[in-house]
Design goal:
By secondary structure, this protein is an alpha+beta fold. The protein folds into 3 domains: 40 residues; 184 residues, Alpha-Beta Complex (Penicillin-binding protein 2a (Domain 2)); 326 residues, Beta-lactamase (3-Layer(aba) Sandwich), CATH 3.40.710.10. The chain is built from 23 helices and 23 strands. The strands form 7 sheets. Strands 2, 3, 4, 5, 10, 18 and 19 form a 7-stranded mixed beta sheet that branches. A 5-stranded antiparallel beta sheet has the order 12-11-23-22-21. A 3-stranded antiparallel beta sheet has the order 1-8-9. A hairpin with a 6-residue loop joins strand 22 and strand 23. Helix 11 runs antiparallel to helix 23, helix 14 crosses helix 16 and helix 14 crosses helix 17. It is elongated.
Length: 608
Amino acid sequence: MSGYLNSPDGDWFNNRLKGTMFFIIIAFFVILVRLFYLQMIHGETYRELSTNNRIRLQHLPPSRGLIYDSQGDLLVDNRPAFDLLVVPRDAKPLDETLARLSSLTGIPVAEMRGRVVKKGGENSSRSVVLKRDIGRDLLAPVEVHRFDLPGVIVKVRPKRYYLNPGMAAHLLGYLGEINTREIASGEHPEASVGDFIGKFGLEKVMEPLLRGAQGGRQVEVDVRGRVIRELKRVEADPGKNIYLTVNTALQKRAEALLKGDVGSVVALDPQSGAVLAMASSPTFDQNDFVSGLSYAKWNSLKNNPGRPMENKATQAMYPPASIYKIVSSIAALEEKVVDRRTHFFCSGQHAYGDRIYRCWKRVGHGTTDMVKAISQSCDVYFYEVGERLGVDRLAFYARSCGLGSPTGVELAGEASGLIPTAEWKRRKLGRNWLSGETLSLAIGQSYNLVTPIQMAMLIASVANGGTIYQPYILGKVEAAGGAVVTTTHPVVKGHLPASKKNLALVQKGLWGTVNSRKGTGKIASIQGVTVAGKSGTAQVVSKGWGRSKKRSIRKFRDHAWFVAYAPVEHPTIAVAVIVEHGEGGSTKAAPIARKVIETYLGKEVRDD
């Protein structure tokens, strides 16, 4: 053997052996260096990554606070919803997992893959929502085949549920998925992509009270992303429950009376400003938004000429028509341009300059005082009042009565309305105020604009003797355990700019509207209950159009107003009704107001 090693062939063998050993030594050296690099230099980093692959943090959504009416009846609840998610990095091979999931649920693979790509791609460790609220029919096969679906998660979350779909939709509002702009705003520090927040109505305004605080749990998962055990849990803090001042029976009645029309009903407690009902028609189903509104459904709502997404009680503005005569009466009495004995003769028209201003009653009202002018809504009497007062004095009293600014009710986007002045016209339109325009202003036409809730607040203030209360909807707030957190107390915004004597004269005129033989609101009378009120017909186009032409085209018909309160002796409800293009306030709006009052007072409701 030694001879072989000393031979030429042996030398070749020795050289090959040495070369092989050299490469083996180099390889081991490289491995040792690499191990040193990984374990000693970057060991902490890779240990952390390993832990993160094994340990996951999962959010626990809070149960959103419930909403009750004034009687303690539940209006808005939560129910469990099952969301289907996938963690792309755990779902390897992703295409096979999605294909298997598609065969079980019917969700197209392309749709699921598109969501994965949009949210970070195949290697993302963040969960991606594939479908929300899958229902128990889809949940069952997914749960049965969970072992064959790596990275697939079914997440249970509380889903908002509105027990009376469409009822008080504009008041309660709805939830929607948070968008990137809302996340970036910093107003929702705990919210993340996929969370739902209040988007409209009380759901939006009361978001800080209703949403609660998120919890979380720390879990250990295997290589397929399946939870092995829970390591730590912090329970979510449920949102607070809120009780409204709204009476559900009254709300339903108001909405039923408006069905088929465009308009609003607002009912207040005149002794506090509490909102008893707030109806806006047409309405919408809030549950559609929580479940995910399709583009077709959204476009149908957006393009509906009835504007169902507008809260007409607080956001729509209309000329106040003859209801404004309450303001004109107060201004005239307080400024002493008339008194209870002042009479004007109404022949059916009033000449001013080179123009004739007509009364709604063509044959006129004859000799008319303040009480008769209010109860029979004589335009000529108030043309005389407007001529004596001027635009700026009328504006002062209108604003002092709460018009021209938001009422402060707890809803976002409340409109201010418009109370014009001479300066306003110069600034806005670049023209001087014409004295003849004040005549139209005094009967609630011209540039005047108000909201239904402002009209409800005005008539409520007259009803209670002059106190202007801020309307409110939130009655009290309770913690999840039932402890009362806060209770709302009435807030006085001001007082009508009228003495008791002058206000009593206005009240007498409003009583006559419903109870006198020629009152314009006799249809609002209720047997056994004394009602006071005021009708109004707001022009949409000028009188020059002609009655027959206006009636033939609905959008050019006048709006119908009626405001009322009852019982006169001690008012417990004040109502404002507006029906767009309803024409006569005494024929269209007054019956609605009467039936709302009947419902609230528990009287027999007539259906005529």
